[in-house]
Amino acid sequence: MTLAAEVDSLLQTFGVPAARYKRGPRMVRSPLTGEVIATVHDANAAEADRAIEQARDAFLAWRLTPAPRRGELIRLLFEELRAAKPALGRLVTIEAGKILSEGLGEVQEMLDICDFALGLSRQLYGFTIASERPHHRMMEQWHPLGPIGVITSFNFPVAVWSWNAALALVCGCPVIWKPSQKTPLTALAVQALYERAAARFGDAPQGLQALLLGGPEIGELLVDDIRLPLVSATGSTAMGRKIAPRLAQRFARALLELGGNNASIVCPSADLDLALRAIAFAAIGTAGQRCTSLRRLFVHRSVYDALTARLKQVYASVRIGNPLLQPDVLVGPLIDAAAFHKMEAALTEARAAGGDVFGGGRYAVGDHAEAYYARPALVELPAQTGPALRETFAPILYVMPYSEFDDALAMHNAVPYGLSSSIFTADLREAERFMSAAGSDCGMANVNMGPSGAEIGGAFGGEKETGGGREAGSDAWKAYMRRLTSAINFGRELPLAQGVRFDIG
């Protein structure tokens, strides 16, 4: 069976109409082989406008639906996703190139956030606030914000939608989703699963969850439309620099997750066996195409030689290939040719900066001229410079020695990104300092694990150029709601605040 035939079979099991992915003008290729697996129809401006208007109408009804009832829709979505997990995970592998366990793991993230959101549907609490005036009470309420736009990237083609949509729907907000141009098929599958859940729910308003396939022009429409008070976008910092000012111009909210040039520090007391496995997964997993991938490694000189020697052994032996044909592979393909060429350019620059490159280069998998597999690269740099200061979305790990912890911490923070970080140490003082206000300046700081260990219960997001947005986590729901404060007078007099007297008779 060809990949195109398998994709057709999978999409039929989800209930996606064939007209959505056949005979369209835009080709969709699998990074596994480079072959065309579908042809899709992108939305136009009129269709986007209609979806936004429907979402606005849906909001007027959905905001009046009790939050626990809204949670029921998410429970049903959970059931549909759980039943479809093997098929959807496999489709993620075909379209995004992830190894099979990571494809399934992404669907599991969707299940986890649905579970989390269902619990939150009964916990959208506000405060009762002490008043300085007698016979008065103040209270805080949280109300649905309105329809939101969600723009997602190829590397997590379905999970990032769920992080936003599960919470937004529970909070009373319709969702309009523009997935990456590179991964429309997984989005079509998820939309079909949502529609199954909505049909079982019974009275979900039309347009509550809409899908708009397309390129940057569709994303721009969402960013600029005043009917969307919030846009959540995942992608590059370059994309964020375009989006953020346009949202600010119309005073809309932005929830941005824009990438990370993440680092780890390996201290003299580190458990090297533990560190080795964590570093390998963080740097090599998903072919280095995670926003939380490990890209910079600072190693104390006392353990530098021992650790780098072991890392090179891992890099030399790591299994690369098509995960559909070789289930035991750990590294699949880069998403496309552009990603490979950016990796090669970064390695060329690293060599010019005095770096010693181990690995890298194209790796042949079958006779697929349009598939771009690459050997993970370990680059020993004498100092943090050149490409180590930028994010390259590829399996490149820059390794640099340090002597003093203060120097390692300074190098760690000396990049404009601020998503995730980690430290490997058995020294409590080092660990606590790394997590302190004077430590890592990232949104996440892990101890004795890699930077890729974000979980649903913790607020996911970063600082600095990573964007400052937060998805999941205990209070992330507030991003999708507006806060209302009320003061209630239950007495027969009208005392004014701060003892002001205003007697009119």
Keywords:
505 residues; alpha/beta; Aldehyde Dehydrogenase, Chain A, domain 1; Aldehyde Dehydrogenase, Chain A, domain 2; five-stranded parallel sheet; 19% strand
Give the tally of structural domains: 2
Q: pLDDT average, as an integer? A: 96
Secondary structure: number of strands:
21
Rg (CA only): 25 Å
The CATH topology of the largest domain: Aldehyde Dehydrogenase, Chain A, domain 1
Helix content: 25-40%
CA(first)-CA(last) distance: 89 Å
Number of helices: 13
Q: Assign the CATH architecture of the largest domain.
A: 3-Layer(aba) Sandwich
Going by CATH, the homologous superfamily of the largest domain would be Aldehyde Dehydrogenase, Chain A, domain 1
What general form does the structure show?
globular
